[in-house]
Specification:
Uracil-DNA Glycosylase, subunit E, 46% helix, 195 residues
Length: 195
């Protein structure tokens, strides 16, 4: 059997060369994701921003710095987890990804990455990422920090989903910083229960 690291590297190469949707036309770099192929935790955002488009790495701007701080608060760093986005190329002017863009990325890359890594917890960052796993009538204001179950549409594998506010929320609203840090404190406890 081909090992996980090689499988993820092959998907990353396909993402970097992908021309399946409009997003590929305006990108500088595709952003496949970074971290451990054996991660127990996968963090998922909606899509790359301007800095991510330049570097090819997710969460490298101010939001990424706060994500790193939150990881450190529970004695983790980027090499312990896997960080990616629903869509792998930056939508123009940071608009929301269109349904066909999401469908192409999830069908060809996203679900495959998750099924290879098989994390114990998927942590969605922001409501847009949360809606890929939970019904659209759910509210992040009510559901952040709570654990949900989700079945992969590709393989039927069950995943544990932990929705959190996007780190950018703390940059725009200082009171959100404490909420995010509190939610993060639950991560080691949840992991322990799931083992």
């Amino acid at each position: 059997m081909v090992d996980k690291e090689l499988q993820l590297a092959e998907i990353a190469e396909k993402i970097k060369k992908c021309k399946l949707c409009f997003l590929s036309e305006g990108r500088i770099s595709a952003v496949p994701g970074v971290g451990s192929f054996d991660a127990e935790i996968v963090f998922i955002g909606e899509g790359p921003g301007a800095r991510e488009d330049k570097t090819g790495e997710p969460f490298v701007g101010a939001s990424g710095k706060f994500l790193d701080e939150m990881l450190a608060s529970v004695k983790l760093n980027r090499s312990d987890v896997f960080i990616t986005n629903i869509v792998k190329c930056r939508p123009p002017k940071n608009r929301d990804p269109l349904p066909d863009e999401v469908a192409i990325c999830t069908e060809n890359y996203f679900w495959k990455q998750l099924d290879i890594i098989a994390p114990k917890i998927i942590i969605t960052l922001g409501r847009h990422a949360m809606y890929r796993f939970l019904p659209a009538d759910r509210k992040i204001s009510e559901d952040h920090g709570k654990l949900f179950q989700f079945k992969s549409p590709k393989t039927g594998r069950n995943f544990n989903i932990l929705p959190l506010y996007h780190p950018a929320a703390a940059l725009y609203n200082g009171s959100m910083r404490g909420v995010l840090l509190e939610d993060f404190k639950r991560v080691p406890k949840i992991l322990k229960k799931l083992k």
